[in-house]
Design brief:
about 475 residues, mainly alpha, Amino acid/polyamine transporter I, two-stranded antiparallel sheet, about 70% helix, globular, L-amino acid transmembrane transporter activity
Length: about 475
Amino acid sequence: EEAVFLRKKITLLRAFSLLIGSMVGSGIFISPKGVLKNSGSVGFSLVVWFACGLLSMFGALCYAELGTRITKSGGHYIYILETLGPLPSFLFLWAEFFAIRPANSAVVSLAFGRYMLEPFFAPCAAPVPAVKLVSLLGYYMVLTLNSWSVTWSARLQTALSVIKLLALALIIVPGMMLLAQGHTENFQDAFDRQSLLLDKLPLAFYAGMFAYSGWFQTSFVREELVRPERNIPLAVIVSVITVIVGYMLTNISYYTVLGMQDVLASPAVAVSFVQRAFKSLISVVPVLVALSCFGTMNGGIFTFSRTLFVASREGQWPPLFSMIHIRRHTPLPAVMLMFPLVTAMVCIGDIYHLMNFFSFSRWLFIGLATLGLIVHRHRHPELHSPFKVPLFIPVSFTIICLFTVAMSFYSDPVNISIGCTMVLSGFPVYYLIIHRQMSTHFLWTKLSSFFPPLSDYLTHKLQLLLEVVQQEIKTY
């Protein structure tokens, strides 16, 4: 009885919660070990953390401008499509669906399972099969919620963002108290040049940027934001500054209480911190960390489903995935599509290998998206943007991203080569299936031309099964 489309339900508070909830997740509880291991010393690791925060702010400002210039949802995908063309956008979609997003979701899910079980098995490590089972259960719960209601997903994100900040506060406060009492012994020779690992620095940046990743999430839901021209820049700036300060203080607290060797030896840094700082909360903090990861999973599903939704609407993905549930007003097919790949990666994956595996592709395409901002400015100088950043910000951010991607081949050639191969495998798919002369003849259109009766029949049956239809109102 009412029009079927995605409603504008993301207010400024919900946008802020989406960003905080996506950034503060498993990263700050996983990445300190990876940053320290690949930077070589306490001092250099803190420099890497601050540099990653500054780099994230540059990227977030670039995406804020892109979000005011390009009014469609879809994040990296739509920015690359609108500025650099269909081929790089299809390669991003290909790599994002088959590598980046499922690996990222698997990392966060495994962190959720590990921290959720940690209090029950301490001081021993939780059994790997149990961790993976709990990880999958958590992921399926978030998947179900996002299929059910946009409003409740947003409310959950807001509540979990408060819990995330509480979890950081429980780590920061005791560390700062010890530091104020003069416990600075773990910061002696903090900048030991002999331990600096220049060839491993790209991996340190990958680990640090993984912890900050999420500053781009509002760009995925641009069409569902209330007053996006105002709320995107405001939410981005406030949330990134909040996270930079929180992460720096958290890492200082880790090193104050644990020291370098303890951080490197710990399978779960936050749990080791609590065991050393105050044992009375030994069962509380891991649960708070697990809930932080739960919020990151929720934000990831919420936003990536919009990428698939927009890609389908643009013709580069099967049309079923641009459909919306007739009563729930959620992009149900797009939400459910990641289910099998994430399940497979959780079952077979390891956190740190998965992190390097997807980081290459992610930062390659983020660098291309900010390159697209420079191109878009050059092509459309007459376009008025309500938010504009100085040119040196997108230029420096793009150069750093692409340089780090290039250097990572030397640091971790195996995993990076796998990620590169995944991206390059999209080339033959694009050129063999997509009509070269007609830029609108994309993947599913071409397949449908071979099997129109079969594709139409399957789409119709799935529509009936899932109770979904095409969006009826243009929202951009």
